[in-house]
What does this fold into?
Amino acid sequence: MKKLIILLLITCGFAPLLWASHGNEQHLSPEEFRAKQKAYITERAGLTKEEAAKFFPVYFELQDRKKQLNDEAWKLIRSGKDEKTTEAEYGEILEGVYDARIASDRLDKTYFEKFKKILSNKKIYLVQRAEMRFHRELLKDASRKGGNKPQQEQKRK
It folds into this structure.
């Protein structure tokens, strides 16, 4: 009985530390995210320091422009949450979202031409592949740290 009580006290003593550490998940600032992304892509794509110095300012310029388009699309999507939104307004929202996606694809094509002036096609391919892997690893890390808990809890119910 004494062993059980001692075990219970020890468990209760460490539980708040475990909960606190779980609730304190670190989030990257935009600068930290970009630094990690740059290091990852540079390594995986085998970019030299000179190539990276020329490539990443253009790459991040593209990312900023695509983020603006994405933000505009999300703003439109959120505007459709209003119960009073009409069918015509939903049509306008969807047109705007699709226009933003098309504009984003056009930006990719435009910047591909800029990238070709800096890197070989093979290196651009390796950058694309590294970028996709980087995002996949971030998602895996997030799910390992409990990012999927609400979905898991819903499945149990």
Observations:
- The chain has six helices and no strands.
- Residues 115 and 124 are 7 Å apart (CA to CA).
- Residues 49-79 form the longest helix (31 residues).
